[in-house]
Amino acid sequence: MSIEEAGTATPMEDIGPIENVPLRVQVANRLRTAILSGRLKPGTSLVETALADQMNVSRAPIREAIQILENDGLVETIAYKGKRVKPLTAREVEEVYSLREAFEVMAVQRIIERNTPVDALRAPCEAMLKAAGDDDLEGLVAGDEAFHRTLIEIADHDLLAASWKSLYLRIHQIMALRSRKDHDLQAIASNHPPIVDALAARDMDRAVNLISAHTRNLKELDPETIAKTT
Amino acid sequence: MSIEEAGTATPMEDIGPIENVPLRVQVANRLRTAILSGRLKPGTSLVETALADQMNVSRAPIREAIQILENDGLVETIAYKGKRVKPLTAREVEEVYSLREAFEVMAVQRIIERNTPVDALRAPCEAMLKAAGDDDLEGLVAGDEAFHRTLIEIADHDLLAASWKSLYLRIHQIMALRSRKDHDLQAIASNHPPIVDALAARDMDRAVNLISAHTRNLKELDPETIAKTT
DNA sequence: GTCAAATGAATTGTCGACAACATCCAGACT
DNA sequence: AGTCTGGATGTTGTCGACAATTCATTTGAC
């Protein structure tokens, strides 16, 4: 039965197209999740044949999946020797955060220059404040990601969005290795609303300074996180 | 004749280790060159089997090479339909140049903040001025790339360098499609020395404004270039 | 005993064949 | 005439086997 005929007999709701996801994408997603959750630690060696056996697929999709993760910057390959989860160095963490700062500053500038509405940022702010009140770390992290993703999205710049997304994967990875007590939920949540206010007021200097400071604060937290992994 | 036998008879100088470059890299380089030179125009369909026949290799390295180019942003894949050289839209050109501006501004800020020496930028400037005098477009372009590559390199930020490099590939592609008369050699060459002066003087505002203006000037040139390709 | 060459194990690199999927066209049926 | 069906074709997706390369270990000569 082809996809077009699907809805003729019974009126069924739109569940969207049936996605036939290639194996390489499934494999890449599984590996990525494992890396980002910290289950696959930096430095772990990834052997194609072993992974192929574990997942019951041939090596071809595994290779392609690993190449995808390599583009994400999560894995590195050494020819004829092996592939491994990219080790996190202090330098790399600094670079990730500083590049993220540049991306978000660019987004802020673009939003103000083009007079883009910023209402979409209010909801994530509320969610974060609520999560902070409930001492809900997961919720806070989700809200934080939603906030920054939205910030990048409304900047309406596909290339920036793609670059930011790739970079944010590594931030996920770094945060997963960070211990819980390092987070001050209330402080993180209350950082965001002033950014939205400055954007709404089209106050370029204030908005840039706030987003810049916000990103730099996060960077400060991580030196000892790195020490644990290398 | 194989590469190993080539130099045995005559005493040869040290050309470094013999790099055994994987086929995928060789293929990727050939395809990339073809795309950047404009020989493979945006929209051209890339068929794995056809390329494999042409280059006398199997499909595996071709696939991996195409995936490399996909990461470079030069090729896009549509599942079960085909792969093609990514079409250049006006929007994409705008995004490429605006992101490049952000990258170079970041490099400038970093160079000034960290008090990095900028002497390495003088040589490319000289080369460009000389090339402009000789009406040597190739030389000027090479000098321009050397200047900006050096700018990024002395910023000492691997992630920034990698991102910039990938972005610059597309700028190559765009420039290759641009007609010769659009270039004002003298103007381009003389744009660069003031940037170095501002950097050397650690004058943040002036340096940022100059590099920003320089990048924006380039962007202005391209609308009609795009019209020709899409 | 020490150093160099050979061997072997582990891993990625490459290949050719077949499967899955989408598109297009021809032909049958209404 | 129009439309649906079925197959032919072109392309990517996946597989299993073999080749190439590296590194560690063992072997052998001196």
From TrEMBL, chains A, B:
Q: Which GO terms describe its molecular function?
A: DNA binding; DNA-binding transcription factor activity
Q: Which domain of life is it from?
A: Bacteria
Per its UniProt record, what InterPro entries does this chain match?
GntR_C (IPR011711), TF_FadR/GntR_C (IPR008920), Tscrpt_reg_HTH_GntR (IPR000524), WH-like_DNA-bd_sf (IPR036388), WH_DNA-bd_sf (IPR036390)
Alphabetical list of Gene3D superfamilies matching this protein: GntR ligand-binding domain-like, Winged helix-like DNA-binding domain superfamily/Winged helix DNA-binding domain
- Show where the HTH gntR-type domain sits: 21-88
Alphabetically sorted, this entry's keywords are:
DNA-binding, Transcription, Transcription regulation
Name recorded for this polypeptide = Putative D-xylose utilization operon transcriptional repressor
Source organism of the structure: Palleronia abyssalis
Lineage start: Bacteria, Pseudomonadati, Pseudomonadota, Alphaproteobacteria, Rhodobacterales
